[in-house]
Design brief:
Elements (H helix, E strand, L loop, with lengths): L10 E4 L7 H12 L4 E7 L2 H15 L2 E7 L4 E8 L2
Helix pairs in contact: 1-2
């Protein structure tokens, strides 16, 4: 799939301050509206969502996934490539 974080995202979803399950729910809704082969960047500070539920969802759907933890800001940047 390549290095998704090096690509320019098509859209950015900010779920900072939201707790589980809202980051996953909002990510799913956003991806449903996006076209195939587009890249979504999700800003998330909920550890359970960033490290577990969103990566598992992306894997189950067969989407490309990449994650970067921004240590100094205390959140993750999740890159999800919608492939179908």
């Amino acid at each position: 799939m390549g290095d998704l974080k090096a690509e320019e995202p098509t859209e950015v979803l900010d779920v900072l301050g939201r707790v589980c399950p809202y980051p996953l729910v909002l990510t799913k809704k956003k991806l449903e509206k996006m076209e195939k082969d587009t890249l979504l960047k999700v800003l998330c500070d909920a550890p359970a969502s960033a490290e577990d539920s969103i990566p598992k969802y992306a894997e189950k759907q067969g989407f490309g996934f990449d994650s970067v933890k921004v240590e100094d800001k205390g959140h993750w940047e999740l890159y999800i490539k919608k492939t179908k």
